[in-house]
Design goal:
Strand content: 35-45%
Helix content: under 10%
CATH architecture of the largest domain: Sandwich
Number of domains: 2
Structural class: mainly beta
Order of helices and strands: EHEEEEEEEEEEE
Number of helices: 1
Shape: elongated
Radius of gyration: 21 Å
CATH class of the largest domain: Mainly Beta
Length: 252
């Protein structure tokens, strides 16, 4: 048998694909950062159903899941759709990856989690952190990739202030591909954004860096299904715009 840890975040059903992708990302990020999931024992040469979602007509569902083998042999994961009246434990007739020419993320990434550490001085040019724009190779030849959907990105940013006075700075989100929602865990706090238009810029967090001091910020996020990527996170001086969570802000 194999013992695996199963961490999941589901969204939907709903006709709104952005709402579905946002809900799945929020649940998955909270669970994966807390290492919160289930332990499953899978007997040898057998198949079990680890997750099932109902998909009504004209609706969308989404699920982000992580399987980590703790002991035993290899485990193969299959995603399939079937009629609601069919037996989910029956043998799957086909397991072909859906094909398509539309530029969208599909395939197998060799690495699905990236960690970055950097520093930024308040008197330097703005610091930009790209989300959904990593140059990822694909193990499946001939498939188009764009958006890094399903790839976890973690940042540790040290904000430094060499000046003799405190500096007010902010973290902004700046979608570059189209309308986007977002979920962040910033210093362990869940921060979310309703959908925002492309090329807009909204504050996600505000900081005051003490004179000749520093502030360390940790960010965990991932591209959200249904959103158009890439998106930039930008550290820059506070421009006096609406604060996150205030009336007129999409961030909550």
């Amino acid at each position: 048998p194999s013992i695996v840890q199963f961490i999941s975040g589901d969204g939907g059903p709903s006709p709104n694909e952005m709402e579905v992708g946002h809900a799945a990302t929020r649940r998955f990020l909270v669970n994966v950062v807390q290492n919160q999931g289930r332990l499953l024992t899978i007997p040898g040469n057998s198949t079990i159903n680890v997750a099932a979602q109902l998909l009504p007509a004209r609706s969308v569902v989404c699920n982000l899941l992580q399987l980590r083998v703790l002991s035993g042999g290899n485990v193969h994961l299959t995603l399939f759709a079937q009629d609601a009246a069919d037996n989910p434990d029956a043998v799957v007739a086909a397991s072909e990856l859906l094909q398509g020419t539309h530029l969208h993320a599909r395939g197998i990434y060799p690495i699905a989690e990236f960690h970055f550490a950097t520093q930024w001085s308040v008197d330097q040019e703005y610091l930009e952190l790209p989300i959904g724009q990593l140059p990822l190779p694909n193990h499946l030849v001939g498939q188009a990739l764009a958006g890094d959907y399903g790839v976890l990105q973690s940042f540790v940013v040290t904000l430094e202030n060499p000046l003799s006075t405190p500096a007010a700075v902010a973290l902004y989100e700046n979608p570059r591909g189209g309308r986007a929602t977002a979920t962040y865990l910033i210093d362990g706090v869940l921060v979310q954004s309703h959908q925002v238009p492309p090329y807009s810029r909204y504050k996600v967090r505000q900081y005051v860096v003490p004179a000749r001091g520093f502030v360390r910020v940790t960010i965990v996020t991932m591209p959200e299904a249904g959103s158009s990527l890439p998106l930039k996170l930008i550290f820059a001086p506070d421009d006096g715009s609406v604060a996150p969570g205030a009336p007129g802000s999409p961030v909550y």
